[in-house]
Amino acid sequence: NVLKECFNPNPNPPLWEPPNFLLCVVFYFSIVSLLIKVTSKYRVNRSGISPLHLAAECNRDEVVEVLIEAGYDVNAMLSEDRSMMYEDHRRTTLYFAVSNGNVDATTMLLEAGAIPNLDTVNPLLVAVRQGSSELVTLLVEHGANVNAYVPTHPTSFPATVMFGMKYLSMLKYLMDNGCDALSCFSCTYGSGPHPPLQETSERDDLRYNTDTRRNTGEPVQFCEIISARWAGPIIDVLLDYVGHVKLCSRLTEHLDSLEDWEVIKEKATPSRPLMQLCRLKIRQQVGIHRLRCIKKLPLPPRLIKYLNHEEHNQEEFCE
User: Fold this and answer.
1) Angle at 64 between CA 8 and CA 16, to 5 degrees
2) Residue-averaged pLDDT of the chain
3) Which CATH number applies to 273-319: 1.10.287, 3.10.490, 3.40.50, 1.10.750?
4) What is the C-alpha separation between 185 and 254, in angstroms, rounded?
């Protein structure tokens, strides 16, 4: 009664102004549970922003939990005008939680049914770029698209690879879960000469600026974005997830830059081992959405490990 008499959680503000309840989400947790009972969800929805958005943005995990229990939609989307206020055009509560690196809030949202593929920029890309293996694992286990792209920066290969090149174990995890490695070896120049790279910006030796080719409307290729310094180990990982491929002249040039990488170049030469081709074919038949079911197949444990790329090396598998 005091709330009803002294504080109206459902005033009639302009559409761009959120109800008073949303402000309390951030500053007054002690009365959030009381306000929930007298707040009109209809008016909250009309405001173009959910209290869950604010709670996640401000890392108010306890409020996130209360709101989820109260039945607020974990997949509520920011209105178009509110989304435009953010450079990445984020829309979901999950995106706010992931961008803050908040594992607890992300876990609560995913377990409550948050869909990880609703935003323009997939939250998985944010987690990969942060290098957060915990967030990446959570998102992938709940169905995040491991082959996500950035619409504003077109590439001929998944953006998850672009952002994951710095973290080899994470890159391997993404490949284990169906990330497209083959597209990384597709090159329009092939064995011919490549145009010189225009160094505009670098992030720890990995080129993330795709403006050079964006003006032409052509997607950026893997060989145009990988740094020579990092090329060897990255290509080595990718080769484990493809069949017969031919390295373009740019990738070959990178591998030739270090004597220790000669074995990686040899790894790419035909013909690939029959075991590798069989593994690749089986995984393709299983399908990306059922790869985790491989462990349930009635097969010998060592074969299961091999199919899941869990063997240390092929020689150990053959012993």
Assistant:
1) 45
2) 84
3) 1.10.750
4) 14
